[in-house]
Prior knowledge:
The chain is an alpha+beta fold and about 180 residues long. It has helices at about 15-30, 40-55, 100-115, 130-140, and strands spanning about 10, 60-65, 65-75, 85-95, 120-125, 145-155, 160-170.
Amino acid sequence: MSQPSPLLIRPSTDADLPAIQAIYARAVLEGTGTFETEVPGVDEMGRRRAEVLGRNLHWLVAERDGQLLGYAYANYFRPRLAYRFCVEDSIYLAPAAQGQGVGRLLLAELMARCEAAGARQMLAVIGDAANAGSVGVHTALGFQHTGVLKSAGWKFGRWLDVVLMQRTLGLGDSAAGA
């Protein structure tokens, strides 16, 4: 049995957008990790990516043997200036990549890059309290449970809770922001 090729985590490119959109489309149509109910097109995913990159934040992809297995990005938690040190992460994986540690590696790299860029807090706003994979990945990387928004979303004919998790990056709140 041969060893799998190494996983490459790298910044996303425009050429990745069709694969990113396909991964997200499946999450929208079949999953509860996103509360979006209509699949955005490639152009819209490109607009979202450009917004993230335009804020000097990160949008990463994981690939193996030229196949995109997942992506992760960080965006401002809220647009107001006081939130500028607080980012929210998002991670989406192709079904073939789930349960193999790809999400954990993507999130760890995203955290490191956000910390290097000056972020002090990272939040996870996890759709569906039953999303054990996402809760588990965040817990494994030091996120703390900070709350639950009960019945915050309606998808697939049922109410879904949102789990809030948070992790300090770098100096956190131990020093003034700039």
